[in-house]
Design a protein that fits this description.
Number of domains of chain A: 1
Shape of chain A: globular
Largest sheet of chain A: 4 strands, mixed
Number of strands of chain A: 9
Helix content of chain A: 10-25%
Structural class of chain A: alpha+beta
Oligomer: homodimer
Distance between the termini of chain A: 24 Å
Strand order of the largest sheet of chain A: 6-3-8-7
Largest interface: A-B, 38 and 38 residues
Radius of gyration of chain A: 16 Å
CATH architecture of chain A: Alpha-Beta Complex
Number of helices of chain A: 2
Strand content of chain A: 35-45%
Order of helices and strands of chain A: EEEEEEHEEEH
């Protein structure tokens, strides 16, 4: 599996962009007073489908800061009770390139509205998730529900 | 905080290497039959001090694969019971550049010997860690001990 390549801004030669997977965050946002539900966005760009709000971590930004920023950009919500859940790193989890995501859970407050990379936004009960979910987000939510109910983390 | 820059291999122009923090793994290795001890390495390169074995995650490699590879390279040990603990992402945690690490715990089996980036290797009881530890590894081990004993994860 080869890392992505960019062009040199001066001469156009190919330059291997990074030797590491790209780092992202995704956030399991519970609406305040709906702890058994999650806010999903419908993606504007491929891979299409319902997904957890999230995105790339900027250089110089902590994971928690990235989670708050991405949640705000894509849903308009402010996060409280932000907790780290789990990292997912299967090289095939994103069809575009190798990304590793660190997943957080949080409560979201404010008026939710889809923005930025999100075309639509909807609240789903954790026991009635949509079928067409992007990436490994269905598995992540399954792991999260199991951990919430039984205290068992994925191996 | 600015991302690292490399030179174009063709014309030498500066190219911003990545917009994301670099991703690493670190491993809390317990020697088999010594669950209350941890194997630390003395670093060959700055920042000097005792540290958890670990290193950069390669593109196309899962976090767990990186943990097994780095443990083998630096300590000669094979890992079993590899479990994800926690990610640490403070932009100041590595003085060289912004790295985000995902920490694993594991049992190590085989004959331990320092190699690669490790100048020396030693087993320390978790309640008697050395003072001169590199990065945020002392904090990581403190969090880990607290979680092991009391089940409390860092916020």
């Amino acid at each position: 599996m080869k890392p992505p390549v960019i062009s040199c801004p001066q001469c156009g030669a190919p330059v291997a962009l990074q030797r590491n997977p790209a780092l992202t965050v995704d956030i399991i946002i519970h609406p305040v007073q709906e702890p058994a539900s999650v806010i999903l966005i419908q993606r504007r760009h491929p891979p299409l489908g319902w997904a957890l709000p999230g995105g790339f971590v900027d250089y110089g930004e902590s994971l928690e800061q990235a989670a708050r920023r991405e949640a705000k950009e894509e849903t308009g919500l402010d996060l409280t009770d932000v907790r780290q859940f789990r990292a997912y790193s299967d090289p095939a989890r994103d069809p575009r390139q190798h990304t590793v995501t660190v997943v957080f859970s949080a409560q979201g407050s404010g008026r939710a509205h889809a923005a930025d990379d999100a075309r639509d936004l909807q609240v789903f009960p954790l026991n009635a998730l949509p079928e067409n979910m992007a990436f490994d987000h269905h598995r992540i939510l399954k792991d999260y529900v199991r951990w919430s109910l039984e205290g068992i983390l994925p191996s």
